[in-house]
Amino acid sequence: EMGKGSFKYAWVLDKLKAERERGITIDIALWKFETARYYVTIIDAPGHRDFIKNMITGTSQADCAVLIVAAGTGEFEAGISKNGQTREHALLAFTLGVKQLIVGVNKMDSTEPPFSEPRFEEIKKEVSSYIKKIGYNPLAVAFVPISGWHGDNMLEPSTKMPWFKGWQVERKEGKAEGKCLIEALDAILPPARPTDKALLLPLQDVYKIGGIGTVPV
């Protein structure tokens, strides 16, 4: 009705009226589902630079980051540029302690020509070079070409990208491989929970409420 058909999957998590009207994620949203191995909680964080505070709030709670990179002509270049959001989000994720990373190369249907292997390889090379500089090991990162609009390589291998033989990761815990994004999520290593250590609580804000006092949140 609003002429935003390409946002149909985003609308599962974009509940606010302003988010749907503007076609961007503003606040973080949670969505739970089950895979073959895990119960997964998706923290949908905004990618727009105006809402970076909300992105930090969501990312700080994550065990693994899924960095979505747009493959469209000009879109990737804008994101990977000096002040681009692809760079900033990858750096923030690593700085916030999210050491596991998956890269989803999205909008493969909008490349020239559609579902272009050279475009995917170009993006993979550029992103690998950058994330290596900030501390990630590219060999331990799954790069998956996807189309969120059509659902290609999200849950099942796409027939439109026969050239993609699958992703592989190498890490000290062993190797993993697959073809889809859902399989990359299943390859995440559960982080060690230091339950025997002292309790630390994140502090997001402090409110002074009349008649009650100072309340940390």
What does this structure look like?
This protein is an alpha/beta fold. It has a single domain (62-216), classed as Rossmann fold, CATH 3.40.50.300. 25% of the residues lie in helices and 22% in strands. The protein contains six helices and nine strands. It has helices spanning 17-22, 52-59, 75-80, 85-95, 117-134, 181-186, and strands spanning 29-34, 39-44, 64-70, 100-106, 142-145, 167-171, 174-178, 206-209, 213-216. The strands form four sheets. It has a three-stranded parallel beta sheet. It has a two-stranded antiparallel sheet with strand order 1-2. The chain has a two-stranded antiparallel sheet with strand order 6-7. It is globular and about 65 Å long. It starts with 16 loop residues before the first helix and ends with a strand. Residues 1-8, 10-16 and 18-22 have low confidence and may be disordered. Residues 1-195 form the Tr-type G domain.
Count of distinct strands: 9
CATH superfamily: P-loop containing nucleotide triphosphate hydrolases
- How many angstroms separate the termini? 39 Å
Radius of gyration, whole Å: 19 Å
Q: In percent, how helical is the residue content?
A: 25-40%
CATH architecture classification name: 3-Layer(aba) Sandwich
How many domains would you count in the coordinates? Answer: 1
Main pleated sheet: 3 strands, parallel
- CATH class placement: Alpha Beta
What is the name of the CATH topology? Rossmann fold
| Mean pLDDT rating | 85
Query: How much of the sequence is in beta strands?
Result: 15-25%
Outline type: globular
Poorly predicted ranges (pLDDT <50, ≥5 residues)? 1-8, 10-16, 18-22
**Helix segment tally:** 6
Helix/strand-derived category reads: alpha/beta
The H-and-E topology, N to C, reads as: HEEHEHHEHEEEHEE
Give me the side-by-side strand order of the main sheet: 3-4-5
InterPro entries: G_TR_CS, P-loop_NTPase, T_Tr_GTP-bd_dom, TRAFAC_GTPase_members
Protein name: Elongation factor 1 alpha
GO molecular function: GTP binding; GTPase activity; translation elongation factor activity
Keywords: Elongation factor, GTP-binding, Nucleotide-binding, Phosphoprotein, Protein biosynthesis
